[in-house]
Amino acid sequence: MVLSEVHRYWIGFCVAILANIVIAVSDTIRKKAIIRRGYVPPENEDKYVHVKDSVLWISIILLIIGEIINFIAFTFGPTFLVASVGVIAIFITAILWKLYYGENFNCLGWLGLVFSILGLAIMAVNFPRREISMDILELASKLDSSGFIYYVIAVVIVLLVVACYIVPFFGSKCGPVYVIFSLVAYSLVGSIAVVMCKCSGYSAKYLITADDWADNNVLYTALFIVVTLVSICIQEFYMAKFTNSFTSPGLVKAIFFILRTALVGAISNMIFEEWSHVRYLNIVGTALGFVLICIGVLLHPLFSDYNFDQALINEKFQAK
C-alpha cells in the first residue's frame, strides 16, 4: 500500500508527538535519579556513581528510544513542523514534574500550554504537504549549493570560541555575555542536528524504497548519520551542563527551543524548499502558529514562581 503525501504528513506529525512524550517521560525519570542521590556534577564525584545508577540508565534508554522515534518522524514529516512539535515535550515534562515532584505549574502555565497546542494545530493545518523529491546525490549537492556546509563550518568555529574563550573568561565575570553566546552556540548546533536528522531519515528511506544501494548513496547516508549523532551528543552534553548551572533551567530550555526551531525553519527552507508554490495565507498561518508556540513556551518558565491560587483569583474578580 502506497501512502499519499497527506497521509505521510500526518503520520510524521503524530509520530513526532509520540517521540516527545517518550522524551518527556525520560526527563522526568532522570530528575528522579538526580533527586534521589542529591545532584552532584560528574566532575565532582566518583565517576562510577553515574554508571551504576539504574534509574539514570532507564532515562537514557528512554531518551534513545524517543530520539529513534523522532528520527522516524523526520522521514515522514516536514523538518520545521517536526521540530516545532518539541514544545509538547517541554509542557509534558513540566506537568509531570508538578505531579511527581511538586514543581510550580500555575494558571499561566496552563494558558501557555493552550497557546502552544493552538499554535501547533494552526501550523499543522497550514504547513505545506510538499515532500522532498530528489535522490541522495542531489540532496548532497543541495547541501553544498545552499551554503549549508559553510554554515556547519561557521557553527564549529563559534562553538570552539564559546567553549575555549567565552565560557572560561566570561562564565563568572559577565553573566549576560556568557548566557547569550552559549545559547546561540548551542542553538546553532541543535539546528544542525535537526537538519541532518532529516537528511539521514530521508536518505535511509530512499535506500530502502528505491533499492538503490550504490556506494555513493550508502557513503552519504552514513556520513549524514554520523554528523547527526555527533551534533546531538554535543548538544545534549553542553546543554545539560549549561542548564544545570541555572536556578531556572526551564527558561533556558524554552529560549533554546525557540532559537533552534527558528533556525531550523530558515535552513530547511533553503535546502528542501518547503515553501515553494505555497500561498501567502498558509505562510501567514504557519508564522502565526509559531508565534503562539513561542509565547506559550515562555509563559510557564517566566511566571512559574508567581502564586495564582484560587483564593487570590476570586478576590481579584469579586463583584462589588
Automatic annotation (TrEMBL):
<dbReference type="GO" id="GO:0015095">
    <property type="term" value="F:magnesium ion transmembrane transporter activity"/>
</dbReference>
<protein>
    <recommendedName>
        <fullName>Magnesium transporter</fullName>
    </recommendedName>
</protein>
<feature type="transmembrane region" description="Helical">
    <location>
        <begin position="6"/>
        <end position="26"/>
    </location>
</feature>
<dbReference type="GO" id="GO:0016020">
    <property type="term" value="C:membrane"/>
</dbReference>
<keyword id="KW-0812">Transmembrane</keyword>
<feature type="transmembrane region" description="Helical">
    <location>
        <begin position="55"/>
        <end position="74"/>
    </location>
</feature>
<feature type="transmembrane region" description="Helical">
    <location>
        <begin position="217"/>
        <end position="238"/>
    </location>
</feature>
<feature type="transmembrane region" description="Helical">
    <location>
        <begin position="177"/>
        <end position="197"/>
    </location>
</feature>
<feature type="transmembrane region" description="Helical">
    <location>
        <begin position="148"/>
        <end position="170"/>
    </location>
</feature>
<dbReference type="InterPro" id="IPR037185">
    <property type="entry name" value="EmrE-like"/>
</dbReference>
<keyword id="KW-0472">Membrane</keyword>
<feature type="transmembrane region" description="Helical">
    <location>
        <begin position="278"/>
        <end position="299"/>
    </location>
</feature>
<dbReference type="InterPro" id="IPR008521">
    <property type="entry name" value="Mg_trans_NIPA"/>
</dbReference>
<comment type="similarity">
    <text>Belongs to the NIPA family.</text>
</comment>
<feature type="transmembrane region" description="Helical">
    <location>
        <begin position="80"/>
        <end position="100"/>
    </location>
</feature>
<dbReference type="Pfam" id="PF05653">
    <property type="entry name" value="Mg_trans_NIPA"/>
</dbReference>
<keyword id="KW-1133">Transmembrane helix</keyword>
<feature type="transmembrane region" description="Helical">
    <location>
        <begin position="250"/>
        <end position="272"/>
    </location>
</feature>
<feature type="transmembrane region" description="Helical">
    <location>
        <begin position="107"/>
        <end position="128"/>
    </location>
</feature>
